[in-house]
Design a protein that fits this description.
By secondary structure, the chain is an alpha/beta fold. It is 34% helix and 23% strand. It has 15 helices and 21 strands. The protein has helices at residues 16-25, 38-41, 44-51, 68-74, 86-94, 100-107, 120-124, 126-137, 163-173, 210-221, 249-260, 291-295, 305-311, 329-340, 379-393; strands at residues 2-7, 29-34, 78-84, 112-116, 141-142, 146-149, 155-159, 185-190, 195-196, 202-203, 225-230, 242-245, 265-268, 275-277, 299-301, 318-325, 344-349, 360-361, 363-367, 370-373, 377-378. It has an 8-stranded mixed sheet, sandwiched between helices. Strands 2-1-3-4-5 form a 5-stranded parallel sheet, sandwiched between helices. Helix 1 (16-25) crosses helix 9 (163-173), helix 4 crosses helix 6 (100-107) and helix 10 packs across helix 15 (379-393). The structure holds ligand PMT. Ligand PMT is lined by residues 189, 191, 207-211, 249, 268-272, 274, 302, 304-306, 321-324, 336, 340, 348, 350, 355-357.
Length: 398
């Protein structure tokens, strides 16, 4: 799969390096073409080092290839322009070809995906919106920008979407058949559960949803349709995942069971509260007057979501659980593999800054085939390894 990445002159140009990496992780060979303005933000040498290929910057002066835009246009399976400025969007809409990137785009017959990024007022301007409409009518895939705090200080739509969302969109546009989870559904539980004591107090934990988000991104990249059943978190899940937000363990159980029926794989990465207050009081318990009630909050066991899903599994479904441990990862993983009825347990280290809320994780993967130890690595990479192992366990589709 060969993807030509066009980079235009925008502060978000530095994020193109991460987009490039996501595409490479998905198995793509990537080559880069930059506009002169893009080179003001990131040097061509950076992309050359990341791709191991020369970076296209000019229409003229290529001693080897006198018509580089035609070769580039013909040699890619998809053209992605990320970030795409308002100026380049306008040129694409009008068919202007006054540099290497826009000439290549005009000559390109492969699918084109464009990820606009700009100031909110530039994005909302009728001219830009008109250009986007023109491009969409022509079959160009224009992604919606994210909304938030922009480099200029304004707030609103205009942010470049997350790199994994952009990569997933490109891969979705390309033939999905080649991807290992194409046509499969993955359900992921993620984040904490929140168990109310009264109207203002609750029992919960520090799960941020980062591991669940990484698993969602890796599953999407592998071609799956993804549903995340998540407790409340501030981590953003990939745009292409369906997200069902729940509060308590009982709500998470209902939502997960509802999603499980047609799932091919279920990954339980949520940190589910094992116990909840027996009774959630309606109003706010008062200090002093309600001391006795507060001091005697009785806890009862929550349902075990992973075990329930494993008991109800349909034929061929792969069920993955996690084990959050401070020591003896291998023992805990093997115990939970048997007691939870899972096909795979990912035991990860927690405590001392590890696990909850961290961007990296040290884990091992236990299956009936044995234990595979991993070094400390980004959660994104661990998620890819877990998804690889799931692909190996899934039965062939007929
Ligand atoms: O969200 P992050 O900040 O990125 O942190 C990620 C994580 C550390 C929360 C994640 O990697 C992780 O380890 N999740 C499982 C945490 C946990 O609850 O572990 P456990 O050993 O208590 O539970 C074992 C397994 O049973 C887990 O798959 C859990 O989802 C599941 N479980 C537990 C209790 C319960 N009542 N129902 C369950 O389904």
């Amino acid at each position: 799969m060969r993807i030509l990445l066009g980079v235009t002159g925008c502060i978000a140009a530095y994020k193109s390096c991460e987009v490039l990496r996501e595409l490479q992780r998905a198995g793509a060979e990537v080559q880069v073409v930059m506009t002169a303005s893009a080179a003001e933000f990131v040097g061509p040498q950076t992309f050359a080092a990341l791709t191991g290929q020369p970076v296209g910057t000019a229409l003229f002066g290529d001693a080897v290839d006198p018509i580089p835009h035609i070769r580039l246009a013909e040699s890619c399976d998809a053209l992605l322009i990320a970030p795409c400025t308002a100026n380049v969007l306008a040129k694409l809409a009008c068919g202007i070809a006054d540099d290497l990137l826009t000439s290549t785009a005009l000559a390109c017959t492969a699918p084109v995906v464009v990820a606009p990024a700009m100031n909110v007022h530039m994005y909302e301007n009728a001219a830009t919106q008109g250009n986007i409409a023109v491009l969409k009518r022509r079959g160009i895939h224009v992604l919606d920008p994210d909304s938030g705090y922009l480099a200029c200080g304004d707030v609103g739509p205009g942010k470049l979407p997350a790199p994994h969302d952009i990569a997933a969109a490109v891969l979705a546009v390309l033939d999905g058949g080649a991807r290992p989870l194409a046509g499969r559904k993955v359900v992921i539980t993620s984040g904490p559960t929140v168990e109310p004591i009264d109207a203002v107090r609750f029992v919960s934990n520090h799960s941020s949803g980062k591991m669940g988000a990484a698993l969602a991104a890796a599953s999407l990249t592998a071609g799956a349709q993804v549903t995340v059943v998540s407790g409340p978190v501030s981590t953003a899940y990939p745009q292409e995942a369906r997200v069902v937000v729940v509060g308590t363990a009982e709500e998470m159980l209902r939502a997960a069971v509802g999603e499980a029926d047609d799932a091919d794989a279920i990954i339980c990465a949520a940190a589910v509260a094992d116990y909840r207050p027996a009774e959630a009081r309606e109003g706010k318990l008062k200090k002093g007057a309600d001391d006795a009630a507060l001091e005697a909050v009785r806890m009862v066991r929550n349902p075990d979501i992973l075990r329930t899903l494993a008991e109800q599994r349909r034929r061929g479904q792969v069920i993955v659980g996690f084990a959050a441990e401070t020591s003896d990862l291998a023992d805990a993983a093997q115990r939970k593999l048997a007691s939870k009825g899972a096909d795979m347990i990912v035991a990860n280290e927690v405590g001392g800054g590890r696990g909850f809320g961290a961007d990296e994780s040290r884990a091992l993967i236990a299956t009936s085939g044995g234990i595979e130890e991993m070094s400390l690595m980004p959660k994104a990479e661990l998620a890819e390894r877990i998804v690889d192992r799931i692909c190996a366990l899934l039965p062939e589709t007929s």
